[in-house]
Write the structure tokens for this entry.
Amino acid sequence: MESAAFFYGMEVFLNGLMTGVMYSLVALGFVLIFKASGIFNYAQGVMALFAALTLVGFQNGQIPFSHLINAIFGTDIHHFGWHMPAFLAILFALLVMIIFAILVEKLVLQHLVNQEPIILFMATIGLAYFMEGFGDLMWGSNVKKLDIGIPQGGNLWIEESTAFLGGEDFYGFYLDTLDIYATVIAIILVAGLVMFSQYTKTGRALRAVADDHQAALSVGISLRKIWVIVWCIAGFVALVAGIMWGSKSGVQFSLSLIALKALPVLILGGFTSIPGAIIGGLIIGVGEKMFEFLIGAPLLGGATENWFAYMLALVFLVFRPQGLFGEKIIERV
Amino acid sequence: MLYREVGEFKPSYKKDQQTFPIRLDRYAFYAVLAFAFFVVPFLINDYWANAILLPFLIFGIAAIGLNILTGYCGQVSLGSGGFMAVGAYACYKLMTGFPDLNIIFCIMLSGGVTALVGVMFGLPSLRIKGFYLAVATLAAQFFLIWVFNKVAWFYNYSASGQITAPERTLFGMTVSGASATPEVAYVVCLSFLVVMALVARNLTRGSVGRKWMAIRDMDIAAEIIGVNPLMAKLTAFGVSSFYVGIAGALLFSVYLGAVEVGEVFGIQKSFLILFMIIIGGLGSIFGSLAGAAFLVLMPVVLKNVMVGQLGWAVDIAAHFEFLVVGALIIFFLIVEPHGFAMLWRIIKEKLRLWPFPH
Amino acid sequence: MTATESYQTPDGRTIGPSVMEMRNITLRFGGVTAIHDISFDIREGEIRAIIGPNGAGKSSMLNVINGFYHPQEGEILYKGEVRKPMKPHEIAYQGIARTFQNIALFKGMTTLDNIMTGRLTHMKTGMLEQIIWSGKAEREEVENRAFVERIIDFLEIQTIRKTPVGRLPYGLQKRVELGRALAAEPSLLLLDEPMAGMNVEEKEDMSRFILDVNDEFGTTIALIEHDMSVVMDLADRVVVMDYGKKIGDGTPAEVRNNQAVIDAYLGVSHD
């Protein structure tokens, strides 16, 4: 019989996989936008936060901008008094994200069409800050609990049925049911996105735009329409990510920092590859957890998860800048 | 006619290359310097120093530093917060390790230490570009903050993990720590800024600056005309980190007096400095200072208006700050990617012809 | 292949021995062979044209001369010595300068600054001296500025010296790029399609500049060009490439009558 330690290690591994799936969910949004417009959307994390805030706001019948309205007019309003069922709230939140996508395209993207990637990137940082302030003003910045009915907490069934594995000191794999749901949803989402991209007309147009803006324009593809569609999809992905992360750790500012974590995921997986985002996310998730478990906590004082992913990405950047799946960039003079 | 540009012909290349070719600009510059050095110290009080002047001077230095790296040499860095931390901690170790060392030397040496660290973290720039490099600098940012949090040697094994600047004097007046006299702190920071801005001007107008700009604009062509990309990028990292390190050392020793690394030097600072150079203008020293002034003043103004006059809650003002900064970044990137500096230049061009349209 | 004696051209120029020799150069990119066993030489003071259909490998050949690409086989002799594998910036210091097919100017700088960057190989003051802007630093800056101004006069671009190059029309940008290459005082000047996209007048101007540079400064010039009349008028000798191989090498007259060249590239006029 193998020792409990080995199985605890396995548990860390499995949890790493699950965390990785969550990272991939966020990374997916990035890949979509990058593929279609060459923009690295730093605001993706804040979009997830905003989507989650909006969802909770609708669910709890919050009045948008109530804090501000109260401050200006001296009123004391907070809620409409209703509670929306989760399903409806999700739909409304999605609608809001669609409106957001349209506005972003109209007010920001349109005007930055021919700029260099770094300028576009900085514009999305600006967008992230704007959304942060806007979302906080609209729904308030206190931590909110997000609950749309996904079961949470350690999955007893798994725990009990695997307890036999590691002998006396091992009590079975502790895997959060929520994470399991997240994995399944992510797989469905990815499969859906891949099929959409490969088999539908719009998906094909998306791939054309990702390849060459000018050429896509010349065959009659409306760049603007595609961008709106892409940002809508990214908004949807952000909503899903926001729901998953929000259910797990509450809806709060730190959600937006996940964007930063997605960067190493994309470095590993390549900025333009959907499967790459998944595999990159898994590698980072497992890598982080295993490194902390094996080396970080015992030898380095812990909290290595803050930087491990970036160091790994850095190593990759030096040796294989295009990631595992991305396209190699050949510079010509 | 109060301000005359026309009729200023330069008889020599030397005169054409001056920093302020227009005579009135030059006089204005000297006047501002004189005012800053000889008048302000008598008018200054604690609030003005701590809320506005010191942050402006210190972040002005940091902004010039980042502009050298990102604006002139085109290497994007999101690690400025971490490098300011290096400067601060180097200063702390020097101040506590060598109590007799004059604080000015401590600060300058801290800059040197940061320059070395900067060069090290700049090595990946030889193989990676654009925002891949930005990611690498993020690695530096997070790693450095973690190091200063975890490795107890850096904070002299104190229980709180905070570092506090020991009291130091200059010419008999307390200059460091929380009890520093505002006039002295102000003059020290101002002196650093003026000297370093002049140095930056000299570097960027000569062949060093041109090498950096060539790398920024088209590094392959730059290499073919003789620029050694390794040396150019590493010198940019080194010089830039020197500036950022000094800013960090000043921030710690002269301005704040005590620092908790996660709050003060986190990723938000890196973004703040980046925003300063975007709004102010990439590739412009004037722009760096304009951006620093703007981003230091704006929250103060917002708070004064919203909390002081309108009576709103503090957190609303904070949210508005995010909103406004974000919107401004987008606005500037769309309307004038070269920031205030370019806007100012365009305004001057238009004023030259006004009221004629062209 | 190596020419060792000088001779005089009918119009009074002296063409010296070979200054650059390519021997059995083969260049591969992954599975594609861009240049296949090519040998030719360039003589000092001559104007050597490299012509051929698109995709023949001409720009790649220039990139090999530059040191930007490293051939898998073959060797390059420069001024009589075998050239060790070097980085492009080191080769710049050897006196080789070039212009590019798609204009590689520094868009963020003015015309003057762009041409000043061409002087980098001649500017010696170190960083420390520049920091304090010592007398030496200032003098060097002014001297080089004077030199650059002479080039600006030569190319007749005085009015645009302070304009950011991104705003200039295509023809002027090409001229500025030539200026930047000239600023380096090169022994060997490589021009990649200098006439591309120009009208007749601009081509005449550019031809005049090229001839003047060769005549006044004795600069050896290698140029890639598609306009046959330009090639025939300007070049002393021509190399013809097709699909990475050399199919012709000689004076313009010889090459014009070479059957292989006619089949591959020139064609025959049908009256």
Summary: The CA atoms of residues 115 and 179 of chain C lie 6 Å apart. Chain C touches chain B at residues 66, 68, 87-89, 91-93, 97-98, 100, 104-109, 113, 116-121, 123, 125, 127, 130-133, 137-138, 141-142, 145-146, 149, 180, 184 (CB under 8 Å). Chain C is about 35% helix and 25% strand.
